[in-house]
Prior knowledge:
It is globular, with a radius of gyration of 17 Å. The protein has nine helices and eight strands. The protein has helices spanning about 1-30, 45-55, 65-75, 95-100, 110-120, 150-155, 175-195, 210-215, 225-230; strands at about 35-40, 60-65, 80-85, 105, 125-135, 160-170, 205, 220-225.
Amino acid sequence: MTNKNTADKNTADRLRRIQARIQAACQRCGRDPGSVRLLAVSKGQPLAALEALAELGQPAFGESYVDEALSKITALSGRALDWHFIGPVQSNKTRAIAEHFDWVQSIDRAKIVRRLADQRPDNLPPLNVLVQVNLDDERQKAGCPPDQVPALAETIVQSSQLRLRGLMAIPAPRQKTSEQVAVFARLHRLFTSLQDDHESVDTLSAGMSGDLEAAIMAGSTLVRVGTDLFGPRPG
Length: 235
């Protein structure tokens, strides 16, 4: 029992530290802290860790592996949680994603858009989707080139089973805050352009443990935090 109490306290402390970082970053750039949401990146974490965070009021979790995620979604089905798929979307996994997730943050090609739209059950609300942008033209990283975002967004909005909500990106690591802000600012300009064309666009998913302050400074509305929130992954 003592170990569980200690683990729960550690979880609460980590959550408070992340929330404090978000609040401080917002205050420094004159933003309302309520304008930035936290996504708990829970891939590779045990169910108990998610339960502990959910008990503390964390409502949104991000998963990258479909089979792992489905077991967690089933186990926590009694809670009002938002499930975000944040990994590369494989064609043979689109049905499971369409049937069980609330958000997909990693849309990068029209084929996946069509499959998710066709496979989203009619009894569920539209699937919230973000276009993943490959800002640095990294061949090993998923995401569509910035100049292809408008066309992909148009494909998304053609389906009543999908709802375009915005953009997501994972820029190449940069050490200087000024460099981090600059690359996120490029993403934000793309985001505001998308907002001009689509009224449903309201979410910019950018910033992780090492650069969330820079992302918030540049306009991020959702930051994705894993290890700093959960602690090291087991094993």
